[in-house]
Design goal:
Blueprint: E1 9-11, E2 20-22, E3 39-40, H1 53-64, H2 76-84, E4 93-94, E5 110-119, E6 129-139, E7 145-155, H3 164-170, H4 174-177, H5 184-191, E8 196-199, H6 202-212, E9 220-223, H7 240-246, E10 249-250, H8 256-268, E11 270-271, E12 276-277, H9 278-287, E13 290-295, H10 303-308, E14 312-314, E15 323-329, H11 333-345, E16 352-356
Parallel strand pairs: 4-10, 5-8, 8-9
Antiparallel strand pairs: 1-2, 1-3, 5-6, 6-7, 11-12, 13-15, 13-16, 14-15
Helix pairs in contact: 7-8
Length: 366
């Protein structure tokens, strides 16, 4: 096409050539509605002495498609703060791992470890750990988190291929762990100066950890899932992701250490009703001894009554009694024995009772 612009013009059927309008799709010969039209070269000016077709076309485009001013940067923090003040909205922020800090000499702090494992199965005596994640942190005696000292993350290749259901659940493949081995000395050194180890299911993680690394046998343990009464403080459950949402965050966990970072924020969450963080409640519970009561040689038909009371079944495969058992506070021991005597055995009995502390609780050694 000739002329000063790359667009064509069309003549209306029966026109003399003076009824001219631009074609937005001149190269295809279609008008904006998709109908064919006759494309011709534009004359210099449809009106003698007037603007050229190109000038006319430019004016049309400037009116139809004005250049928009780039939007101003959005202050997302201000928007989130405004929404948070409304009872109609809840704000969830993406979880960002806390940076490590340098401890100040002389500060009265304690050091703890948050731990998470991924395994090839649920049996601690046979299945294997394929990933270990830990976050080392400092906290005050009042249970307030001061800062993160360090993190640890490692894979371990098991002796057999990872089951498909485990890969589906964790995202860990044989290729990811291939050739990796735990550095036992590094793990022991990482844990050495901690006074407590916390997991979000210590009844699971402690048994595996003790089997691999004896250093964990000599540490106090706490469980953020069972040693905090989450329902009492307004949470409908104790699943980690749900608790993290309640603390105002969301995360896409890909590694065990990611869950440790998530747990750190859950434990830092301050309950509005008491003005204390979740970690303070966990530590208070972990410091108290509990009593394990064994209900041995009970009639089979009483199992539902025991289950409703909170008893759990142990199959005896771990060397402990093949029996029902429950853990209660020291102050509740007399009531528990009275229950067994009046509703289970129907006579005076002295059930087997074990005293547990944070150093033995959740371990399969007792």
């Amino acid at each position: 096409m000739s002329g000063c612009c790359a667009q064509g013009v069309v003549t209306e059927p029966g026109s003399t050539g003076t009824n001219i309008r631009p074609v937005l799709s001149a190269r295809t010969g279609l008008n904006p509605a998709g109908l064919p039209e006759k494309v011709v070269n534009p004359p210099e000016s449809p009106v003698p002495g007037g603007p050229s077709v190109c000038q006319t076309y430019a004016m049309i485009l400037s009116q139809a498609s004005p250049v928009e001013t780039p939007p101003k940067p959005v202050d997302l923090q201000a928007m989130a703060a405004a929404l948070a003040r409304s009872p109609d909205y809840r704000i969830l922020r993406r979880l960002a791992a806390r940076p490590t800090y340098t401890p100040i000499i002389g500060n009265d702090v304690r050091t703890g470890i948050l731990l998470d494992t991924e395994t090839t199965g649920l049996e601690h005596s046979n299945d294997e750990i394929i990933e270990l994640g830990m976050v080392k942190f400092d906290y005050t005696t009042e249970g307030r988190i001061v800062g993160v000292r360090n993190t640890f993350s490692a894979f371990n290749e098991p002796s057999a291929p990872i089951p498909a259901e485990v890969t589906a659940l964790t995202g860990i493949t044989d290729e990811m762990v291939g050739g990796h081995r735990f550095d036992d000395a590094a793990i022991a050194a990482f844990v050495d100066d901690a006074v407590i180890v916390i997991a979000h299911n210590s009844g699971f993680d402690r048994k595996f950890a003790e089997r691999y690394w004896p250093v964990f046998e000599h540490k106090a343990w706490g469980c953020s899932m069972s040693e905090i009464d989450w329902r009492k403080h307004g949470f409908a459950g104790s699943q980690l992701g749900y608790l993290l949402n309640g603390a105002g965050y969301f995360h896409h966990a890909h590694r065990a250490v990611d869950d440790c970072h998530a747990l750190l924020e859950v434990l830092a969450f301050e309950f509005p009703t008491i003005g204390s963080p979740a970690l303070a409640l966990l530590l208070e519970t972990a410091r108290k001894p509990t009593m394990r009561v064994w209900a041995e040689q009970t009639a089979f038909e009483l199992k539902d009554l025991l289950k409703r009371r909170g008893y759990r079944w142990n199959d005896g495969s771990d060397g402990r009694p093949k029996s029902w058992f429950t853990d209660v506070d020291e102050t509740a021991l007399d009531d528990e024995i009275a229950f067994l005597r009046s509703q289970i055995y129907m006579q005076d009995v002295e059930p087997t009772v074990q005293r547990l502390t944070a150093f033995t609780r959740f371990s399969d050694r007792i």
